[in-house]
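Changelog excerpt

This revision adds worked examples to the README so contributors can see how folded entries look when concatenated. The first example is reproduced verbatim below.
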Amino acid sequence: MQEPSHNGGPAPPATAVAAGYTHPALIDDFTEDTAAPTMLGIYNWYPFQPYGAPVLDPSQYRVKDGLLIIDTDASGYSSGLTSINSLEPAISRPGALACNTGKGLAFQFGYFECRMKYENRSSPRAAKGQSWPAFWANGIEGPQNRTSTYTELDFVEAYPIASSPYVSIACTLHEWTRGWNPDGTPSGKNHDHFNHSNTIGAPPHLKQDDFNVFGCLWSPKKVQWFINNYPIIEVVVGPDTPYPSAVKNAMYLVLGTGKNWPLQIDWVHVWQ
């Protein structure tokens, strides 16, 4: 699916403008079917899973009435759709528009935002570690080049709160250190360094059981998270920090959820 025209499209948020990220590298409002049924063709989203998560069947996701809906019965690891269909995607560098040539889209730096909705719940089927609605990004350098360290940037993950109908929000930057199998899946002893202030509970400006805009500013100096344009937390990145890969990696995007926890996505915007 060809990228939509940006004439008369959405404007970048003030935070993105202030950081100099004003080019629309990806604008998907799901007015067209931009989710691929297979790994073939030029789409914005594919069921490709480099890390061994369950590959979604086309019956488990659909674009309908301006929404991307993911409703999976896959258990365990949160599964979803990615912005690449192989480990050799097109890569958008700072200030350049992403070019989808059929390998998918990956990005380095920018402002990433997604308007999405999920149900609030604390049922056993949504227990932490089994399923969670999320919008995140993974560094392609890990599985693609078998590098020992790479970045995972979780723009938002929603987890149940015990004995509560609500959820907590986690915004996490991971610096992964791990080995690799020949097929590109992780092996050996893994080490995860992450920002320990990542779990932020249920912020007062979060609209429970409704659509919210989750944003993230990823720059060469810091990562900063937003909910409905309110700043939440930030982490300094760079060579002299615990997160050096965050300034070296290009990342692909993931929209996903877990078992019996439907996720509705209104739009995804990336500004560079």
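The second example, added in the same revision:
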Amino acid sequence: MKRIARFGECLFAALMIYSGVMHFKFATYVAAAVPSWLPWHLFWAYGTGVALFAAGVSILVHRFTRVAAPLLAVLLCSFVLFIHLPSMAHSVTHAPQEMRVLWSFNGTGGINNALKDLALTLSAFILALSGSSLQRNRQWVLAALINMFAIVMLLFGAEHFYFTQYTPGIPSWSFVNFWIPWNEVWGYLTGAGLFIGGSMILLRKRMDLAAASMGLMILFVAALTYAFRMAAHLGSYGELTNTMKDVAVAGGAMMLAGFAHPENQPAKDTPTVKPSAIETV
């Protein structure tokens, strides 16, 4: 399980390094997504790219992770609060009669992309807290983060049964406009796997096994569906970024699996996080 968790960290770090590079390659596009009330948009685009790249390298080489992980979590959280939420509010304001605009590509990917970034934020926070000591009166923080991660997985799972036209795996704004065998079957199976995995984590039933299985499933489906896209000559930076995010979410689940494994839980007589504390939230 430790190897699975370390593999998950590498997948998570790969997205951060990739995203850092993309912030430089498409700096003008990234700058357009910076909130209008912030000055020097290009500065924030380049600065964010440097921060993502540095955090990814830190996690990948396993150096200064205790510093990089919480700072990265705060950065990713700012994406959700200052980019995704205002974008969705703008969409609802301008198209209140069509609530499905939240699931469409409106410049930032809609609610699905917001949930992906939320899952990545939670993964970074879990990575930061799993390697540190928590006071007893703050043990609920880690438990709440785990619960939120499980709820995001439940939402992703439920979407597979209502929006079957989207790609199996972690739903995104892209439709299945390429050939894939038994598309709806893959969608339902993936949705069921996400729903079961999220439920087991939420109920604290073999949380390590549930998180590891869910992470491996997400990784497999993401790689498989992207291979079909490439075979259909539909590969693009947008599709690659979506796939990389899916892979990083899979990494987050694997990191959670490593932390949740009984052998990695701290002893009951220490002031750090205890399994019983997590189970009671």
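Reviewer comment on example two: The first helix runs from residue 2 to 25. The CA atoms of residues 50 and 119 lie 21 Å apart.
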